[in-house]
């Protein structure tokens, strides 16, 4: 049998986009997990800054230098 390529993929494209779109429940769960992660990350950074103030100060200085040298 010869190798034939389909040129009309309208049905496949529609069903593929429906499968790719997440439902609202999964999206809400993802947002909750992301918010929890960001809260914990912020808390960890605050703790690190309290425990290692000299390193935190050096990091702030490096960030300030990067912002001063950044060109818009």
Descriptive report:
It is flat, with a radius of gyration of 25 Å. The termini are far apart. By secondary structure, it is an all-alpha fold. Mean pLDDT is 77; it is low at 12-17. Helix 2 (24-51) packs across helix 3 (53-69). The chain is 78% helix and 0% strand. The protein contains three helices and no strands.
Biggest sheet details: none
For the residues shown, what is the average pLDDT? 77
> Helix and strand string, N-terminal first?
HHH
Low-pLDDT runs of 5+ residues are 12-17
- The total beta strand count reads 0
Oligomer: single chain
Q: Helical segment tally?
A: 3
Rounded radius of gyration (Å): 25 Å
Intertermini distance: 60 Å
Q: What is the percentage of strand-forming residues? A: under 5%
Relative helix content: over 70%
Summarize the structure.
Helix content is 78%, strand content 0%. The protein is an all-alpha fold and 72 residues long.
Q: Descriptors for this entry?
A:
mainly alpha
Helix and strand topology:
Blueprint: H1 10-20, H2 24-51, H3 53-69
Helix pairs in contact: 2-3
